[in-house]
Amino acid sequence: AGHPFQQRCAQSAYSNSKPRQEAPAFLLFLDCVWQVLRQFPCSFEFNESFLVLLFEHAYASQFGTFLGSCAADRARLSLPEKTVSLWSWVNRPQELERLTNPLYEANSLVIWPSVAPQSLLLWEGLFLRWNRSSKCLDEAYEEMVHIIEYNKELQNKVNSLRRQLAQLETEDPLLDTP
Questions:
Q1: Buried b / exposed e along 18-36 (16+ C-beta atoms within 10 A)
Q2: What is residue 97's DSSP assignment?
Q3: Which domain of life is it from (predicted)?
Q4: How many helices (H) and strands (E) does the chain have?
Q5: Cα 142 from chain centroid (whole Å)
Q6: What contacts 59, CB < 8 A, 6 or more positions away?
Q7: What is the tens place of the pLDDT at every residue in 49-94?
Q8: Taking the complete model, does pTM exceed 0.85, yes or no?
Q9: For the chain, what is the radius of gyration of the CA atoms?
Q10: What whole-number distance in Å separates Cα of residue 4 and Cα of residue 25?
């Protein structure tokens, strides 16, 4: 079982299959995930860079993760001995920091993305990634991270002040009377 990367990514650097079976199913899946990520930016631990990384390594990669069409193919080709897994590289602390969504907040609620045509956008971060200036995007990302960190500091101060107020209210009953 598994996604048939060998057949579906026929234009990849490592494929020798017939183009007749080629289909961008994995790219379509990643685009769907990006659409939902865009609509619910606080609901995912990963960011857009992670999805772009998966796309790029599905078509041309120094990792063996997307070679073959299933675990049996990868074992037959001895890929675990010949290549490194993309997941072991992604799980390094410096990579995790780069691919983690700073807006993420755990949420147990179900998300219902809109599939209305006006809700779906072109994934510029993938399809136009060479036409965009990364300087502005990097600056905006840094500013967003600073705002999130400042917000967390303020929230910690609010929580601290609430605890102090609650403690004062329990210590001095005169504070409760108007």
A1: eeeeeeeebbeebbebbbb
A2: H
A3: Eukaryota
A4: 9, 0
A5: 17
A6: 9, 11, 12, 13
A7: 999 999 988 877 778 777 777 778 778 888 778 888 888 999 999 9
A8: no
A9: 23
A10: 10
